Amino acid sequence: MERIPILRMGKFLLVTIQVDMHDRLAMTLQDDLTSRIVKDRAKGVLIDISSLDVVDSFIGRMIGETAAMARVLDAETVVVGMQPSVAITLVELGLALPGVRTALNVEKGMALLTGADTL
Amino acid sequence: MERIPILRMGKFLLVTIQVDMHDRLAMTLQDDLTSRIVKDRAKGVLIDISSLDVVDSFIGRMIGETAAMARVLDAETVVVGMQPSVAITLVELGLALPGVRTALNVEKGMALLTGADTL
Questions:
Q1: Is residue B21 situated within a structural domain?
Q2: Which parts of the sequence belong to the STAS domain (chains A, B) (predicted)?
Q3: How many domains is chain B built from?
Q4: Residue B79 belongs to what domain range?
Q5: Is ipTM over 0.90?
Q6: How far is B52 from chain A, CA to nearest CA, in Å?
């Protein structure tokens, strides 16, 4: 179990982060995700972080970097399920995730990606 | 991070199992899932086990039990992403998951639940 699974949902990819990210796992995720974006011609990536109670600057940077990588591959990233404490920490760390869209949950994130206005 | 997140996708719930299940985590998952089925009036549950390389009888039983619980709450369970080695082990353990439907990936599992014949 050294990989975070990437699930395909139509034109989008869904990644649920449940475990503590260490350097190697984060690198593997970025490799896997960029490959899958190209292979599946994904138009968007949903990163669910609802099970993260705490984040550190490493995870914050990793999310920002992953979103930037997706963007240059023409896929939009939406981070979903962020807990209030995580939002506070990220801003305090100076990692306000510029260019990353956020949504309350996967459903709303999916709506954001499809351009549906059912928010 | 002592909970496995349950994501809502329309009328269905999605659970991605990425970590080693121990007793307490499995119990928490079953509690959370049954509560969410009732609260969200879910009609189906997708359990993604694509990141599990190995299963033991505990996980096998847990999946079977969870599916049975969902069924009595009127939600259908589809196990998706099972690796060949896991299928072999489950059958060898005598846990052929009766009554549990399976699909290759989340997308196909979702199609199975919605009754779409786009398989």
A1: yes
A2: 1-113
A3: 1
A4: 6-114
A5: no
A6: 6
